Amino acid sequence: MTRIIVAGHLCLDIIPDLRTLPVSAMELPGRLNEVGPLTMALGGAVANTGLTLHTLGSEVTLVGLCGSDFVGNAIYQALYTRDPQLVRALTIDPRQSTSYSVVVAPSGQDRSFWYYPGTTAHLDMPHITPHLADADWLHIGYPPMLTALMADDAAPLVALLKAAHTHGLTTSIDMVLPDPNAPSGQYPWPYILSRILPHTDVFIPSASEICAMLRPDLYALWGHDCDMQLSHADATSICTELIALGVAVAGIKLGSRGLYLHTGPATAFTHLPWLDTAQWASQRHAQPAYPVTVAGTVGAGDACVAGLIHGITKKLPVHVCAQGACAVAACCVEGVDAVSGIVAWDATLRRFGITPD
Prior knowledge:
By secondary structure, this protein is an alpha/beta fold. It has one domain (3-19, 38-351): UDP-N-acetylmuramoyl-L-alanine:D-glutamate ligase. 36% of the residues lie in helices and 18% in strands. The protein has 13 helices and 14 strands. The strands form 3 sheets. It has an 8-stranded mixed β-sheet, sandwiched between helices. Strand 7 and strand 8 (112-116) form a beta hairpin. It starts with a strand and ends in a 6-residue tail after the last helix. The mean pLDDT is 94.
């Protein structure tokens, strides 16, 4: 079984049911608004991607930081209850407050997040490198939130990715939209990507994330609606740029439009022993999303990435990996939180009529 480290942002998602609350009501101070029940769920890439991979059938090591406060204890207990092995690589730092997110999704609007970085900002190489020797894949979730790894124009993150390759691991990164009012919004993202992507094998940001980083003119025009507005030509241009920087499998998550994948030449697959380069090299594939009834979109992008990684480790063709990624994302959005809708890999493929060949 493939051993995958998922390291990065770990938090508690606090999700009030705001489906009966119009956006206009949030703009009226002093008003009492009745809402629905509260959901509290594990969040961040470590939980979302890691637990999805765990459910799909991968062996995962979750590397994250928690405090010893109420939020940190809730995260630890939820993971331990699910599987005691899931907490073996967590670090508890009693000096720090644990990260949390309030997921705000009023009626008729996509979700937004009120985010406290807390312990996430302190995750660094020493928390991760001890686990490299016992793994096959390193996935880093949400670098814009990982302040320690992003110091000195991401020098620690570059060193970590290099160390992973030295140990023979495949590497992948999943992004999050930088907050323009936080330090992550001021990072020189084109330069940082030019430093980290030569050591990244799989890179699948969302359209809004990569436009904010590499196409600020398009992001200024469309904002979060980049997922719906980005053209095929622009997606191809961006992925071509990512591949030129060294990525073997580049892609763009397009929300309800699905997933676009673009792969590099055979020489880019040095650290992807899972794949038949005759099938994978120099491919382009646009995979539509599967129609389902949406209960919530929290973690959909993480689920998509988890599905893609799992498919790659099973050495499946590019089109099957893309189908599987979108199928896992479709299962995800049927749940209010990020993982309650996820089912095992084989069951996911059967449900959506995907043939693994």
